[in-house]
Design brief:
The structure holds two protein chains of two kinds. By secondary structure, chain A is an alpha/beta fold. Chain A folds into two domains: 4-91 and 154-249, P-loop containing nucleotide triphosphate hydrolases (Rossmann fold, 3-Layer(aba) Sandwich); 92-153, no CATH class. Helices cover 38% and strands 24% of the residues of chain A. Chain A has helices spanning 44-52, 74-79, 97-104, 113-140, 156-170, 186-201, 213-219, 237-240, 244-249; strands at 4-15, 18-29, 33-37, 59-64, 67-68, 82-84, 174-178, 205-209, 222-227, 230-235. Chain A has a six-stranded mixed sheet, with helices on both faces. A four-stranded antiparallel sheet of chain A has the order 2-1-4-5, with helices on one face. Chain B is built from 13 helices and two strands; from the N terminus they run H-H-H-H-H-E-H-H-H-H-H-E-H-H-H. Chain B has a two-stranded antiparallel sheet. Chain B has a single domain, classed as Orthogonal Bundle (ABC transporter involved in vitamin B12 uptake, BtuC), CATH 1.10.3470. Chain B is mainly alpha-helical. Residues 277-318 of chain B have low confidence and may be disordered. The chains are: A alpha/beta, B mainly alpha. At the A-B interface, helix 2, helix 3 and helix 4 of A face helix 7, helix 8, helix 9 and helix 10 of B.
């Protein structure tokens, strides 16, 4: 199993009597773009929560870049280089677009209360570098004209782009995207696809939870199919199209034309 | 004249308290009802450190006669220590109404302990006798001292303002706002929510403790009836008027609300049938107003906690 950035072994989680995730096992190699698909209720979002520390599994192991993640807080996991998104964009509404990206750059040393009290000017000077980088990132996502706009005032599509700008700012090893295409028009969808490929080209690993199968087919190197809390197939999209278990899980849908 | 010196001094002290509370509520979004307790503890501790040994039947702890500024600093350390305990419990998992109720519970428990356990701070009668600390040293008249004290309060307010403004514009302030806007997203970007809020909470409590230290010298006496969560609602109103998370606005808000609403309304005629009541009288002979030189109406401070505001008559007559 060496060479894998993320390894999930026999992960289980129940809510009340309902098993959301059962004995879920998969792994993701470095630099890959992997789609995580499955019908509603398959347990995809629960897996995202468990991996990112927003939920605690009942059993199982999660190994990320050599670290055991089970029991760690979300912020600790994020600091290890695993950034997740949520199904709806969760921008910091009252902060400006630029401030959102600056926070996402995660330069924790500048947030020391003691250093702020004793040497705020030095921090401001040091932050010049981060500001330049943040502006470059905003440029890339065509948000630089909106840099002083409060993030809460952005349109739905712009919020999606800001989410990508924040991820780029955080520069994580692994990105877990939870339905990045929700409520996105085709033009923006193409840009999001490009953004994901760009992450991969820069050496980031990306896992995309998504219902839009044509998007998954175009964007992902590999697909993991979940149903009823378990992984039922993993491999390149083309090879899974005719897999009877996958077809069955999607109730016989023609996967090429969802 | 001295009435306005008194009012403006008090507003200045409350502005420091409000800047501290704004850190907790305006920046972090936590509605804290224990906050006035930090001012109270700051007042009590400053007194027991500065007014010397108790004379029976008065009882209280410590009873040192330290110089007033040193007493304020030590008192503030004690306040931060208490905030460290309450914050550690209340901030860890509780949010919104649960946080508010927990802090209200904490301050109510403290209130009861102070009231019932007399050896701590002389119970219901409270402490008194911190009258113009340093007046002899500065060689001032009573009125002169009150004016100088007003300037000291404003110097402190100015320094606190600069400090808070510095925090507000820093990455630390930005991070706190991100936590307030969306905790889960902030955690997903590596922010430890508890620790972020905790640091701001302790800093806010330190400002409340400082306000308490100044308050004790301002009213020269402190007892449980001067101390109630309702007092805090005026401060919350002031923050709302000035704008949450905006230090300059908060200071303006305090002056508008405190002087505009609370003090000026005293000049309205009050119904003749309205009784003057409140445990300010229960403080009996120890009230500040009974001090021969008192210019400050004690009824302007102590009974207000119990719902009654006295008319301006005493204040103006003085």
């Amino acid at each position: 199993m060496s060479g894998h950035l993320l390894e999930i072994e026999r992960l289980s989680k129940s809510f009340g009597g309902v098993a959301a995730v059962r004995d879920c096992t998969f792994s993701v190699g470095e630099g890959q773009v992997v789609g995580l698909i499955g019908p509603n209720g398959a347990g995809k979002s629960t897996v995202v929560d468990l991996v990112s520390g927003f939920g605690r599994p009942d059993s199982g192991r999660i190994t990320f870049a050599g670290h055991q993640l089970v029991g760690k807080r979300p912020d600790i996991i994020a600091r290890l280089g695993l950034i997740r998104t949520f199904q709806t964009p969760r921008e910091w509404r009252q902060l400006t677009v630029l401030q959102n990206v600056l926070v996402a750059e995660c330069v924790f040393a500048h947030e020391s209360l003691w250093r702020t009290v004793t040497g705020a000017r030095r921090i401001r000077r040091e932050e010049g570098k981060e500001r330049i980088r943040a502006m470059e990132i905003l440029e890339r996502y065509q948000l630089s004209a909106l840099r002083d706009t409060r993030a809460g005032n952005l349109s739905g599509g712009q919020k999606r782009l800001l989410e990508f700008a924040r991820i780029a700012a955080a520069d994580p090893k692994l990105v877990f995207l939870d339905e990045p295409m929700g409520g996105v028009n085709p033009v923006l969808g193409a840009r999001i696809g490009d953004a994901i490929r760009h992450f991969a080209d820069e050496g980031h690993t990306v896992i995309v939870v998504e219902h839009n199968l044509p998007f998954i087919e175009k964007t992902c190197d590999e697909v993991i199919v979940m149903d009823a809390g378990q992984v039922i197939a993993q491999g390149p999209f083309a090879g899974l199209r005719d897999d009877p278990r996958v077809v069955d899980a999607y109730l016989g849908m023609d996967l090429s034309h969802e | 004249m001295m009435y306005w010196v008194s009012v403006i001094t008090e507003a200045g002290i409350f502005a420091i308290l409000a800047l501290g509370l704004d850190l907790v509520w305006g920046w972090c979004g936590d509605f804290d009802l224990a906050f006035y307790g930090y001012l109270a503890l700051g007042s009590y501790m400053t007194m027991v450190l500065a007014i010397g040994k108790p004379t029976p039947p008065t009882r209280y702890i410590i009873g040192l006669a330290l110089p007033y500024p040193l007493a304020v600093i030590i008192a503030d350390v004690v306040v931060v220590a208490l905030a460290a305990i309450i914050g550690a419990i209340a901030l860890r998992n509780l949010r919104e109404i649960y946080f508010a109720v927990t802090t209200l519970g904490a301050v109510s428990a403290l209130y009861l302990i102070v009231e019932v356990y007399t050896p701590l701070f002389n119970g219901y009668n409270g402490l008194f006798g911190l009258i113009n600390p340093g007046q002899a040293l500065l060689n001032l008249t009573y009125d002169g001292y009150r004016q100088v004290f007003m300037l000291i309060v404003f110097a402190a307010l100015f320094l606190v303002y600069l400090l808070v403004q510095r925090l507000s514009r820093s990455p630390f302030g930005r991070m706190l706002r991100a936590v307030r806007e969306d905790e889960r997203a902030a955690a997903a970007y590596g922010r430890g929510i508890f620790f972020a809020k905790y640091r701001a909470y302790l800093f806010g409590a330190a400002l409340a403790g400082l306000a308490g230290g100044l308050f004790s010298a301002y009213i020269s006496a402190f007892n449980p009836s001067a101390w109630a969560p309702q007092e805090l609602l005026v401060i919350y109103a002031a923050i709302l008027v000035g704008g949450r998370g905006n230090p300059r606005g908060v200071i303006v808000g305090v002056f508008v609300v405190y002087i505009g609403f609370v003090e000026l309304t005293r000049f309205l005629p009050s119904p003749a049938s309205r009784p003057e009541f409140g445990p300010g009288d229960a403080a009996g002979p120890h009230r500040a107003a009974d001090h021969p030189d008192a210019q400050v109406p004690a009824s302007g401070h102590l009974p207000r906690a119990c719902g009654g505001w006295s008319g301006p008559a005493e204040g103006l007559a003085a």
